[in-house]
Amino acid sequence: MKTNPNTILVLFVSVILIGYFFKRIKILQLEDSRSIINLILYFTLPAVVLKTFYKASLSFSLLLIFLASLGFGIMMTIAGIFLFKNHLKKNKKGLLISSCIGFNIGLFAYPFVQAFWGREGLLNIAMFDLANAFVVFGASYAVAAIYSPNTKEISYAYIAKKLLLFVPLQSYMLAILFVFMNVTYPDIILDFIDIVSKANTVLVLLVIGMFLSFKIEKQTFIETLKVLSLRYTLGMITGVLLYIFLNEPKAIKNTIALGLILPVGMSAIPYSVLFDYDRELAGTLVNISNVLSFILMWVLITFL
To answer: Which residues of 14-53 are buried (b: 16+ CB within 10 A; e: fewer)?
Structure first.
């Protein structure tokens, strides 16, 4: 797509606002977002992944992206525990820490990366997301369980099950396996994947719009500010340092820099339900970080 970045962003914002408007006039309910998210995770996103990895060349640079994502996830786990270790409210502590960990990539970044950087950019961000899946369903889940007000035990079997049954992760592993096996898809399969993958952009943008909310309590805002300040400060510092010192192609460094400023993972919302945390706080974290990441992403894409 040879279109001015600002034009693309205007088009994307338009679809996001349509999602918000549909929610306001009740054409779509917030509860409908669960069905749309499932459609993305189990259908359109796997199609994007399979299409992106098809006949791709895996390189050491892609491994660096994976390691950068994984390493930052570990660093944020430690930083989050340190920052909120003395937080007294049990219904928020674990949520605040776990929300420092991991990113919303599949339900946020893919449409933008595809529009601006094409298939190469998608391949790069997919490797970042592959590590992110382990961080979100590993470290973030464990932290949420440990600090749960109901003191639920960590179920390592549950973590393993979630990872193994997480369809986007399965699609990553399958796509990578196909690369190593040099599998060639029949034309009809390629056409099917192509059609399904094209639906991903609109669905993701609609979901972002449906989660937009401008009602924020003062205390919730203060706690949200602490989490997001930590995420974006460390993310930008790490991104700048890696951009300066990594001896890799610009596309690789751009992907890492972008990945480190993406919003709080959508897992914050189901985790708040599963472990009895403050659901309003979880929604606020996701909502505000979506807006901030959108702005930062526009700045990064415009000037890099």
So the answer is: ebbebbbebbeeeebeeeebeebbeebbeebbbbbbbbbb
Reference 278, options 151, 30, 95, 85; nearest CA is: 95
Most confident by average pLDDT, 116-125, 226-235, 289-298: 226-235
- CATH code assigned at 102: 1.20.1530.20
Number of domains in the chain: 1
Neighbours of 194 (CB within 10 A): 11
Q: Output the six-digit token pair for 148.
A: 């749960």
Q: Measure the CA–CA gap between 13 and 72, rounded to whole angstroms.
A: 29
Nearest in space to 104 (alpha carbons), one of 80, 125, 75, 83: 125
pTM of the model: 0.88
* Amino acid, single-letter form, for residue 246: L
The Cα 125–Cα 136 span in angstroms is: 16
Report yes or no: 265 and 140 within 8 Å, Cβ to Cβ.
Answer: yes
Report how far residue 57's alpha carbon sits from residue 47's, in angstroms, rounded to the nearest whole number.
18
Burial class (CB in 10 A: 0-12, 13-18, 19+), 75: middle
pLDDT, tens only, 123-169: 999 999 999 988 998 888 888 888 887 765 666 777 777 777 888 88
Confirm if 44 and 196 have CB atoms less than 8 A apart.
yes
Q: Report the distance separating Cα 107 and Cα 135, nearest Å.
A: 16
* 192-198: long-range contacts, CB 8 A cutoff, minimum separation 24: 193/47, 193/50, 193/51, 193/54, 194/51, 196/43, 196/44, 196/47, 197/44, 197/47, 197/48, 197/51
Q: pLDDT digits over 81-104, tens only?
A: 999 988 767 778 899 999 999 999
Q: Confidence band (pLDDT; 50, 70, 90) for 211?
A: confident
Q: State the CB neighbour count (10 A cutoff) for residue 294.
A: 17
Q: Which domain holds residue 243?
A: 5-303
